[in-house]
Amino acid sequence: MNVAPNDVASSAVDYEELMAPWAYNAAAITLFCIGFFGFFLNLFVIALMSKDMQLWTPMNIILFNLVCSDFSVSIIGNPLTLTSAISHRWIFGRTLCVAYGFFMSLLGNSLFAR
């Protein structure tokens, strides 16, 4: 089978859905809520800690690193996943799929490595 590395399904006939349509819609709603609150609440913590230098204790520095990593996930990963849930498939091609997997693994490991 000779498949180009950037092949994506171009129409509904080219792919098989892995979940029921209602499950994709539920995932999209959940991902939107996670992304919305993850973005704004983490941004709030970053702004708060940036303004008040008294908050820079050793424990809060670790928490700040966690917040930055989670904020990065909400900026980089969540829009791609949300768009895929709305589309019922991955629409960004193989290269971005691999890059997405790498960065989400990297950011996820940085969350748990602390």
UniProtKB/TrEMBL annotation:
One of its GO terms (biological process) is visual perception. PROSITE patterns: G_PROTEIN_RECEP_F1_2. InterPro entries: GPCR_opsins (IPR050125), GPCR_Rhodpsn (IPR000276), GPCR_Rhodpsn_7TM (IPR017452). GO terms for cellular component: membrane. Keywords: G-protein coupled receptor, Glycoprotein, Membrane, Receptor, Sensory transduction, Transducer, Transmembrane, Transmembrane helix, Vision. It is a multi-pass membrane protein. GO terms for molecular function: G protein-coupled receptor activity. It is found in: Membrane. It holds the Pfam family 7tm_1. The chain crosses the membrane at residues 22-49, 61-79, 91-112. Residues 41-114 form the G-protein coupled receptors family 1 profile domain. PANTHER family: OPSIN. Belongs to the G-protein coupled receptor 1 family. This is G-protein coupled receptors family 1 profile domain-containing protein. It comes from Anopheles culicifacies. The lineage of its organism: Eukaryota, Metazoa, Ecdysozoa, Arthropoda, Hexapoda.
